[in-house]
Write a structure and sequence with these properties.
By secondary structure, this protein is of the alpha/beta class. The chain has three domains: 4-175, 3-Layer(aba) Sandwich (Rossmann fold); 219-335, Cytidine Deaminase, domain 2 (3-Layer(aba) Sandwich); 370-491, AICAR transformylase, duplication domain (Cytidine Deaminase, domain 2, 3-Layer(aba) Sandwich). The chain is built from 16 helices and 21 strands. It has helices spanning 15-24, 33-41, 57-63, 90-94, 104-107, 110-121, 135-145, 150-175, 232-245, 270-280, 298-304, 319-326, 379-392, 418-432, 452-460, 475-484, and strands at 4-8, 28-31, 47-48, 82-85, 127-129, 190-195, 207-211, 223-226, 252-257, 260-266, 289-292, 311-314, 332-335, 346-351, 354-359, 370-371, 400-404, 407-412, 442-446, 465-468, 488-491. It starts with a strand and ends in an 8-residue tail after the last strand.
Length: 499
């Protein structure tokens, strides 16, 4: 085995010890730039390889087996057995708010990218190392066996290709962020943010990833201020709860459980909205995630301390409120100041043999809802309809939401038909009637167009105003039926299915 190595790294963690270990094994070491300087200062013998940017041509010639390969300072290079290279951390730079796209070319690492690519290409003959985590096992194998098993060497090359692919994908997704979201080729680099406690179930593993190089936003910008570890389900609940809360301008409390809204209530104060949400769905709120669209106030924190909520998420917390929430055992307190939605984000869902990708459902309405009936909603009905419509957007299809005044009183989701959704929502509301304030007319929002039979069931349950997508063959019959009963009905002109 040729005992030759070339080292050129930006991240110098552990490289000095690795080079010293190679020297102890009688390796001839060649290095470039700041890596050579580090080794020289550490007293490790190495040959300096000088080159003119953008790439070290002599090193690439040596890796390609084209000799003689002589550096610009006259050093004749051998065939390298070990190549250690890593790249400038472009993702960290691009994620900074002040980074400008015009600066990008100056940060792209062409030299080490070319070297690592050439080494990984010849994985049968060359040991390519791009991570400090591999230094110790590579040294141990060289010391004990004089080389690496072919399978291990292949895995190191695979790791190098993955590293290069992630680097290239980070640049590609940064440049194409405002371009076509559904191109013929989708390149994506994801960086692990956190290992999760478990997946949807305890026997499943899970982790949270963010786009490499993306500026922190959404859950990637979240700060855990208090509480324990998160699992897969916690992240889903945090995402849905905070997104729904951001749909409102007035103070609102949203409680989500198992990735679906359990309670939504607006109030003149934040504490009032929380109490209204808990009153409207006392059972479904237990163990849920509560989201607010304003800084959490001490009065709100005091009310939260009296109930079992697993997580709280808000843009910020008043000092007294945070102190009170931190004292509650087991409560996860999350600050999420950045907007959740970006117009360039997509939904991804794996299916057998591939991945489905769609643009995010970022709209509430495509246009102002059209009134399909003679009677228009009253001011109170219109406000309640808007509340119910925002809520049903985040419920699983088929779904309906009933609202009275400023609170959603019942949500039925994941039903096989709109008829079942309406019947279940009305049943839930009747069961809770004794604890509901009954503050205003009863209105309903449906996430799908309503057949006449479904509308009839809703009106029989006391609904006085309806908002639905429209676009169904029963639209005219539904409008006529509403007119006969002096019920107002709006067509939203947009559907919000959620699966």
């Amino acid at each position: 085995m040729d005992k030759t190595a070339y080292l050129s790294v930006y991240d110098k963690t552990g490289v000095e010890d690795f080079a010293r270990g190679l020297a102890e094994l009688d390796f001839e070491i060649y290095a470039s730039g700041s890596t050579y300087k580090l080794l020289a200062e550490a007293g490790i013998e190495a040959e300096e390889v000088k080159y003119s940017p953008p790439v070290p041509s002599a090193v690439l010639k040596a890796l390609a087996g084209r000799f003689p390969a002589v550096s610009e300072n006259g050093v004749e290079l051998p065939r390298f057995r070990v190549v250690v290279a890593n790249l400038y951390p472009i993702a960290a730079v691009m994620g900074q708010p002040e980074f400008a796209i015009e600066e990008l070319p100056g940060y792209l690492d062409q030299a080490n990218s070319a070297v690592l690519r050439a080494a990984a290409r010849d994985f049968v003959s060359v040991i390519s190392v791009c991570s400090a985590a591999d230094y110790a096992p590579v040294l141990a194998a060289l010391k004990e066996a004089g080389g690496l098993e072919p399978g291990v060497q292949k895995q190191l090359a695979a790791r190098a290709w993955q590293y290069l692919a992630a680097y290239d994908a980070t640049v590609a997704q940064y440049l194409s962020e405002t371009g076509n979201l559904l191109g013929d080729e989708v390149v994506m680099s994801l960086r692990k943010v956190a290992d999760l406690d478990y997946g949807e179930n305890r026997h499943q593993n899970a982790a949270f990833y963010a786009l490499s190089g993306a500026r922190p936003r959404g859950l990637n910008a979240a700060r855990l201020l208090s509480g324990g570890d998160f699992n897969f389900n916690h992240y889903l609940d945090l995402d849905t709860a905070f997104e729904l809360a951001q749909e409102f301008e007035e103070p609102v409390c949203v409680i989500v459980k198992h990735d679906r809204p359990a309670a939504v209530c607006c109030g003149s104060t934040q504490a009032e909205s929380l109490r209204g949400a808990l009153r409207s769905e006392p059972a479904g709120s237990v163990g849920g995630t509560a989201a607010f669209n304003r800084q959490v106030e001490p009065e709100t924190a005091a009310a939260l301390a009296e109930t079992f909520i697993e997580s709280v998420v808000a843009p910020d917390y008043a000092p007294e409120a945070l102190k009170a929430l931190k004292s509650k055992a087991g409560l996860r307190v999350v600050a999420l100041p950045a907007p959740v939605l970006s117009p360039y984000e997509v939904n991804l869902r794996s299916v057998a043999g591939g991945v489905l990708i769609e643009s995010r459902d970022n709209r509430l309405f495509s246009a102002e809802p059209a009134c399909a009936t003679k009677r228009k909603p009253t001011e109170a009905e219109a406000a309640a309809l808007r509340l119910a419509w925002k809520t049903v957007k985040y419920a699983k299809t088929y779904a309906v939401a009933l609202a009275e005044g400023r609170c959603v009183t019942a949500i039925s989701a994941s039903e096989s038909s709109t008829y079942d959704a309406v019947r279940n929502a009305l049943w839930k509301m009747r069961e809770k009637r004794s604890i509901l304030p009954g503050a205003g007319p009863l209105v309903m929002a449906a996430d799908a167009a309503l057949p006449l039979k479904t509308l009839q069931a809703a009106l029989a349950g006391g609904v006085t105003a309806v908002i639905q997508p429209g676009g169904w063959q029963d639209d005219e019959d539904c409008a006529r039926f509403c007119d006969e009963r002096n019920v107002a009905m709006l067509f939203a002109g947009i559907r919000h299915f959620r699966h």
